[in-house]
Amino acid sequence: MPDQSFEDWAAGRPDPRFTDWLRERAQPLWTQAVTHRFVRDLAEGTLPEAVMARYLVQDYAFLDQFVRLLGSAIAKAPGLAERLPLSRFLAVVTSDENTYFHRAFDALGVTETERTDPDLREPTRGFHAVMAEAVAAKTYAETLVPLVVFEWLYLDWATSVADRQPGKFYLREWIDLHANPDFAAFVAWLRGQLDSAGPTLLPRKQQAAAAVFRHTVDLEKAFFDEAFVETA
Predict the structure, then answer these.
(1) Tell me: the pLDDT tens digits for 85-122?
(2) What is the pTM of this model?
(3) Helices (H), the chain
(4) I need a labelling partner for 13 at 20 to 30 A (CA). Which of 20, 35, 94, 230 fits?
(5) Which secondary structure element, helix H or strand E, spans residue 137, and what is its range?
């Protein structure tokens, strides 16, 4: 049932996880996103340069707000044990991943203006709004919801094509950044955080979290769609 509460959904299940409930509520959008044409073409090495350039420009425009979201999660985390993994991940995003973007931009001929002041596409603006709401949320659990979508969905699609080796480095390394043991361990930990915090929310807050999760998954699919659109 699409609107089934977490409590009702969990009843009778041997190991009910809040994140599994959220993902189930987001189907079939989740499957449509992780099996998207963008993923298939990237893995096969047939994704046009212009499509990858548009995608990366918009993804880089996502990064500043994403860093703020991580900072908010770090601030709201219950203790140092939870803050440390988030802080380590923030360090990866602002070092290895940031460096990847600039190397890819150079290879794809992306201009300085496109890198620093692009016209934001509708899904990118949607992501910014979702992240701003999560930063403004009062609870750790609510702040984690879009973060779990961003990381878990990327782990899912990248893992499914991890054995592919597209020739261009910016395709191959984009898979590798999201399909490696360290990232998988972080996503497992992140899901565990929401699995623990989510059930403590009031039922109406749980339903709101499910709506945010589904909307964020929908934006992920739209973000892939938009990469194939030449003009905004």
Answers:
(1) 999 999 999 999 999 999 999 999 999 999 999 999 99
(2) 0.96
(3) 6-10, 18-25, 29-34, 37-44, 49-76, 80-92, 98-108, 112-116, 122-136, 140-160, 169-178, 181-197, 203-227
(4) 35
(5) none
